[in-house]
Structures are given as structure tokens and as C-alpha cells.
Amino acid sequence: MALSGSRAARLLDTGLALAAELSLPALLQRIVDLAVDLTEARYGALGVLSVDGSDLSDFITSGLSAEQRAAIGELPHGLGILGVLIREPAVLRIREIAEDARATGFPPNHPPMHSFLGSPIRAHGRVFGNIYLTDKKRALEFTEDDEAAVLVLATQAGVAIANAQLYAELQQRERWLDSVREVTTTLLSGDTARTALQLIAQHARELGNADMATISVPDGQGLRIIVADGAGAHDLLDVEVPLAGSLSAEVIRTERTMIVTDASHSTLTQPMVSVAGVGPMILVPLALRTSTAGVLAVGRVAGRPAFGSADTPLLESFADQASVALEYARAVSEISRLGMIEDRERIARDLHDGVIQSLFAVGIGLQGTAAVVGDPRLADRIQQFVSEIDRVIGDVRSYIFGLRPSVLTAGNLTNTLEQLGHEVEERTGVTVIVEIDVSLEAALANASAQIVHIVREALSNMERHSGATTCRVSILRDAASAVIQIDDDGRGFDADSAPRGMGMGNLVERAEAIGGQLEIESKPGSGTTITVTVPL
Q: Is residue 454 part of a domain?
């Protein structure tokens, strides 16, 4: 099938023009326009195949005005004659569309079309899409020469599309490297992990050609969106994502990336769908060394093309960045905590080795002085000061005990509190009874450290102020709550009028840190009961 000399020359120019175009959207439009001009067709279109090759994901037209396209409505899905080329990728020429048994007719407001010429476009070894041409001007049907020309143009278009895709991939890789560099710089410059995560969400949305991106991490019994970027970001921030019946829950359960063609039709819920009208989604787990930390979710508004497998590596790389940012935040927090513990250990050591020893030396000296003083009243007075120094030494020892971090014995809250009660009993002579419902150990695992601090603070207050002979520490179950209680038989105080000191302030803060509610009951002469109720 030979081409005429003039048309061969035009195709040579066409090939050069297509090779020079590197923007894929502009290239596709140019291919359609050139095909219409080359074959003298009235209408032309280029249908881009979906990821699985069974449908049309995009449809670029030539010869139709914007008003005509709007009147036609929804773009074709590849049925009828259009579907023939999808199922059988080969040149197709038809004299009259309406007379072909495979035709399914046109939708309302569609202009009438008669003759037809179509050809597949191959790029990267697979069918990228199809050229559709209709209604040859000044003739009833397209010719063999038109068919040969379209075949050559489709070959040129395939090469040009492959080049444009490679160029787009290079540009995207360059932008990805820039984003990695920016996130790394943000972390190393000392900015918060939240700032880095916001950048990651932004770059994932932009490079993933999406409308919305969120990062959610575990919070209590579910996930919480801590970063959102794109449409509806303000409404999505801090929204809870349930760990039952949601797309994120499924991603965490399988620890695998999930591609959703249209989340609005899924039986699993997702806030991004209801708030931002998202349809296509891709969800990637954020994995730390020990467990899944959360989910990076990226979505496009309903009606846009679905994500493909080619999008997965890019978004998984952003998920890796987010995981690094979360690990970095944890490391910084741990370093800060260890620094605080070291400072407290140093202060405790200085108090023990310096202040207590000095006070002890002063007390010994005063006792020696009292023994040689001839005036009994003055000796008694000196002895009172020695007793006061002993009391101060006891207080300082209590402060040191509070400064040093508790270590849960083999992770066992019961053993730790029993050891704490035994130490207080040995130091003060107060009988300390510890009663723990061991079935609560697992439920209170995350709150164990704070519970130890609460009990220690309460016992320290009891030791300094109550004059008690017996104290009871209990953690028991009450319906859906754990009740932590420290009560003594000391002198008590007026709880309504007593000023709130640092000790009581610490109790309130630690109770709130584990979601508990603190109550203090006390009256002069009737002891004190401190109760913290923690929902399970």
C-alpha cells in the first residue's frame, strides 16, 4: 500500500513535528489534529486506553466545539465501533457506520457521522490508544491511501508518545529527588516532624497528580489524620479514622498498598471520600521497624482516572519518607527523655552525695555539742534542731526517690507497686498494703509508668504530711473502668480549702495524661483518699 509523494513528504514533516513535542497532553491533541488534516476528515478523536486496556480513560477530540462536547455529555467508554478497535487492535475502515452490525448508535446531541477510519497506537510495546476519524470531506469513504497514511502516523505517534512519557518520567524523577532533598533538609535543620510530614503529603499529592493527600497515625483505639493537603484539608485535619470497616484498617491489617478504583462505591468507609468527594485512591502503609505506624492516603476526585500500578513505587517512596520522619520524631523524643532522666539522676546523686551528707554531718556535730552543753534546756533545744534535720533528710530522700525514674519490674505493674510499697514501709514504718487486680495488667500496660508516678507522689505526700500508720494502695475493676486508689488513716486536711501545691498539681496532670479523672477526699482527723478513675 504505497503513499503518494506529496502525502509521504507531509508525513515526514509530521514525524519531525511530533518528535519535537514533549508535553504529552499537547502531543495527543496534535496527533488528532494532524490525523484530521492528513486524511481530510471532518471529525477526529484519540481514545487513551485505561490501565487494564479494557476501557477508555481519556478522549481527545478535533472538529467538535466546546458547546458540542458539553451537549454530548459523558465521554464514550469504548462500546460499539470504538470497542472493536479496543478488542481487535488493527486498522479498521468502514464506508457507513450505521450499516455496520457492530455499531450501537450515537448518544443524544451527537453530530451524525458516516464513514470511519481507525488505527491503534502502540507505545512501549503495548497499545496506548486508538485514532478515530469520521466523515471524509468530499468523499463517501476513506481511501486505501488514507489508511496507509494513518498507519504511518500511528507509528510516528507511538514513538512520540513513548518519548514524551520517558521525558515525563525523567521530570517526575527529578521532582521526586528535589522533594527528597527538601524533606531531608527540613528534618536535619531541626524543624518538627510535622513540618516534614506536611511536605511529604504535599509532594505525594502533586507528583501523584492527585487532589488530596493525608497521613494518619495510631491514636487510642483508631487512627487520627495529623497531616492533610489539598481539597478539604482543613476539614480532614484531626479527623479520626476507625480501625474497623475503613480502607485504612484494611491496609494496616494486610500491610500492603491498596489501589481503589472508586472509593465512593466501596463498602469500607474513609473520611477522604465523605469530606473531599474522592473516588480513585491509593493507600500505602507507613511501616516502622516494629509495627505499622499509619497510612499515607492519596486520592483524586470522583470521575478522574484511577491510579495504576505505575503510581505505586512513587507513593511508596513517599511513605518510606514519612516513616523516616516518624522514626526521627521518636528518636528526638527519646533523646530528650533520656537527657531529662540523666539530669534528674544527676540532681538526685548531687542531693544524696552532697546535701544529705552535709546535713548528716551537721546533725552529728550538733548531737556532740548537745552532749557537752551543761544547760539541759539548751541541750534539749539543740536536740530539737537535730530532729528537724533528720526530718529534712527524710524529705530530701523522698525528693530523690521521686526524681529517679521507676523501672517496671519485668514489665509487671503489680510487682513494681509492691516493691514501691515495701520501700516506703521500710523507710517510714507506715504499713503499706498493696492490692492489685492482675487482670488489669494488660489493659493498663500503656499507662503503667504514669500509674507508678501517681502512686509514688501520693505515698510521698502521705509520708510528709499525714502522720499515718497504715496506707492502702489498690487498683481494682469497676465496670468499664480501672480505679486506682491510695488511702491512709492519717490526720487528713480540709480538701475544699487547702491550697493546691506542686504535689497535687502533679497528680492532676498525670491522671489527665492517661485519660483519668482525679478525686481527693479528706477531712481533718479522718485520713485521705486519692482516687483516679481510668476508662478501659
A: yes
Q: Are residues 139 and 102 in the same domain?
A: yes
148 and 189 in a single domain? The answer is no
**What pairing do the DSSP bridges indicate for beta strands 431-436 and 470-478?**
parallel
Q: Nine-digit cell at 252? A: 494496616
Domain boundary, last residue among 106, 137, 169: 169
The tally of domains found in the chain comes to 3
Task: Choose the final residue of a domain: 326, 341, 357.
Answer: 326
Q: Is residue 77 located within the same domain as residue 195?
A: no
DSSP string spanning 286-303?
EE-SSSEEEEEEEEEETT
- Same domain (yes/no): 186, 162: no
Give the residue numbers spanning the domain of 464.
406-536
Residue 263 CB-half CA count within 13 A: 30
Closest CA to 17 of 144, 169, 164: 164
In a domain, 293, yes or no: yes
**What cell does 25 get?**
497532553
Euclidean distance between CA atoms 149 and 372, whole angstroms: 125
Q: Which helix (H) or strand (E) holds 532?
A: strand 528-535
- Regarding whether 214 and 81 lie in a shared domain, the answer is no
Is residue 514 a part of any domain in this protein? yes
Q: What is the 3-state secondary structure (H, E, C) of 328-389?
A: HHHHHHHHHHHHHHHHHHHHHHHHHHHHHHHHHHHHHHHHHHHHHCCCHHHHHHHHHHHHHH
* CATH number of the domain residue 15 falls in: 3.30.450.40
- Give strand pairing partners of 470: 431
| Predicted model pTM | 0.51
Q: What is the pLDDT along the chain (536 residues), one digit of tens a residue?
A: 555 556 666 777 777 778 777 788 888 898 889 889 888 999 998 988 876 777 787 888 898 888 888 888 777 777 788 888 888 888 999 999 888 888 887 888 888 889 999 999 988 778 888 899 999 998 899 988 888 888 888 888 888 888 887 887 787 788 878 877 887 787 777 667 778 888 888 888 888 888 999 988 877 667 888 889 988 888 888 888 877 788 888 888 888 888 888 888 887 878 888 787 888 899 988 876 555 568 888 999 888 888 877 788 888 888 887 877 777 777 776 777 667 666 666 676 666 666 766 777 777 777 777 777 777 888 788 888 777 777 777 666 666 655 555 445 444 788 888 888 888 888 788 899 999 988 888 888 888 888 888 888 888 888 877 888 999 999 999 888 899 999 999 988 876 665 555 557 778 888 888 889 999 998 888 889 999 999 88
CB 292 within 8 A of CB 252: yes
